[in-house]
Amino acid sequence: MNAAKIQLSAEESTLIQNAAWLLTKNIIIDKVVALMGQQIPVMRSLHEQLRHPLPEAAAASSPKISKGEKYEGLPWVMLDFPRVFGKEDTWSIRTFFWWGHFFSLTLQLKGSYKERYERTLRDNLPLLKQHGFYLCIAADEWQHHFEESNYMPLHQLDEYSIEELLSSSNFCKLSAKIPLEQWEHANAKLMQLYQVLLQAMGH
Question: Vertex 81, ends 75 and 86: CA angle to 5°?
């Protein structure tokens, strides 16, 4: 890197001398982790109320909270619970926080789990549309952004298009997002979406 490229702009110079904003960012990330931690007992309570239990491996799984700094260059936090990640089979509900963008809740199914739930999910498309869910249309199952190259709103897709998308892929991802402006209501909204996903799978 040449000398010109390592000079700081006026804004960068101000930020590098100000530790408070970075400490505040760390406090916010800790609060996101705490928020996700509060979801876990609620999720477990919902599982106990199910008349049709989750797949055995998913029901036996333990929650996992992860965080990082650079998804598309920005900090993130995620909770995977319940979760089954195998080479061929995936069953996961993922809560995701992306700095500057949104909270999201995603159902990810692959392999035998996709085959098991696909028909029931199709039957419950009106419910999922009502609650603002999107369907992943991309080939990469590990992207979280809601750009048109990755997700399409279910209400913009007809049944034939949805069937084609589901049948042409070995995985299924259904996701809904919550704006960060709704922080105060995010936990309740995420749990509502969680219940919707369970209901859409016939639980």
Answer: 95
Chain segment 41-88, per-residue pLDDT in tens = 999 998 888 777 888 999 899 999 999 999 999 999 999 999 999 989
CA distance 128 to 124: 7
Task: Compute CA 147 distance to the chain's CA centroid, rounded to the nearest angstrom.
Answer: 14
Return the residue matching tokens 């028909």.
Answer: 119
Distances (CA, A) of 194 to 77, 84, 128, 155, 170: 17, 17, 11, 19, 23
**Please, what CATH class does the domain formed by 9-200 belong to?**
alpha beta
Query: pTM to 2 decimals?
Result: 0.92
Instruction: Using CB atoms within 10 Å of the CB of residue 156, give its burial: 0 to 12 exposed, 13 to 18 middle, 19+ buried.
Output: exposed
